[in-house]
Design brief:
The protein is 71% helix and 5% strand. It is mostly helical. It has 2 domains: 29-158, no CATH class; 162-308, no CATH class. Helix 12 packs antiparallel against helix 13.
């Protein structure tokens, strides 16, 4: 009787080492020291960046464009809890590159203080500094799974008012022009775009849409992207699905911003609230947030449903190929 041929073993040293490190690092009770070290270092970072965090919190309270910063801690916690199994399986000993990244980020932080003061770049250095802490204490794979949380943190850092106004001026002008074109087609309504103001006449009533609101033609753009990131990473997805979400983020943000302006204009024309009342702004923003969330959820649902058959077919082909190899090996034996 001839001995059955042994299957050639293929060893990938990098993956094998990572696997051993993960097993050693996440034995019962082994993950707790890494988590404690991570929390301590992140707490020290919060002390270093306390001024920037305080400015971000005040901006989120005073400026509704950055109000999503108030829910950012909860959103980050949700993402981490949803990925806790992947984080636990990916935990390793850490990397010295994390220490280097942390020191480099702190160096950039110091460079933005003296000789010139750059507020936004200084606040942004919190993101690579936090990434360095995670890489140093938990390893490369945990850092990869933490990228969505770091992205939410980045989107929660407010941009300076002048810089933000310069970035959105073209979007605001285009949105207001498109909204004027649509609202002007309503029966008995005439609109005129005077600078950033949408002036309307409906019968005996005249007024301005979103009176006293700055940049009302380009508000909540970052909030829409924030919602998209949260929906995209609330579950583990394939790379191509993340790319689809990234490609859809800007169009969805512009669409929801346009519909927000339309909603505010329709409320001002037909409901006729007090010109300085925040009701129309609140309703229009709420509708646009719900729409953005629904669109991103629909994108995720379509990708998970329409392409499931292709995934099953690929798995079936792989199983067929594996069975054919087994039969060939048995025949040779």
């Amino acid at each position: 009787m001839s001995a059955s041929p042994e299957r050639p073993s293929v060893a990938v040293s990098g993956r094998a080492d990572d696997g051993r490190d993960a097993i050693e690092a996440f034995r019962p009770g082994a993950g707790r020291p890494a988590m404690i070290k991570t929390l301590i270092l992140l707490g020290l970072l919060a002390c270093v960046f306390r001024r920037e965090l305080r400015v971000a919190a005040l901006m989120a309270i005073r400026n509704s464009d950055w109000a999503h910063g108030l829910v950012a801690p909860v959103a980050i916690l949700i993402l981490l809890l949803r990925r806790r199994s992947e984080l636990s399986r990916s935990l390793t000993r850490g990397s010295v590159w994390g220490v280097l990244l942390l020191l480099f980020s702190l160096g950039l932080f110091a460079a933005t203080i003296w000789p010139y003061d750059y507020a936004y770049p200084r606040a942004v250095t919190l993101v690579p500094a936090a990434a360095g802490v995670i890489l140093a204490t938990c390893g490369r794979r945990v850092l990869l799974h933490s990228v969505p949380a770091l992205l939410l943190l980045l989107l929660s850092i407010p941009i300076g008012q002048r810089a933000y106004a310069a970035l959105v001026i073209r979007t605001e002008t285009t949105t207001l022009s498109a909204a004027r074109f649509v609202l002007d087609r309503l029966p008995g309504v005439a609109l005129n775009l005077d600078g950033p103001d949408l002036r309307f006449t409906a019968g005996n009533l005249t007024g301005i849409v979103a009176l006293g609101q700055t940049r009302h033609g380009a508000s909540y753009l970052v909030t829409y992207v924030f919602i998209g990131v949260l929906v995209a990473f609330v579950r583990v997805r394939l790379i191509w699905q993340i790319i689809v979400f990234a490609m859809a983020a800007a169009p969805v943000a512009f669409l929801c911003n346009f519909l927000r302006v339309l909603t505010a204009g329709a409320i001002a024309i037909y409901a006729r609230p007090d010109p300085v009342s925040p009701v129309s702004r609140f309703v229009a923003a709420s509708v646009s947030f719900a729409l953005a969330y629904s669109i991103f959820v629909l994108i995720g649902w379509l990708m998970s449903r329409l392409f499931i058959e292709d995934t099953d077919a690929e798995d079936q082909d792989e199983n067929t190929d594996a069975a054919g190899l087994d039969e060939t090996a048995a025949g040779r034996a």
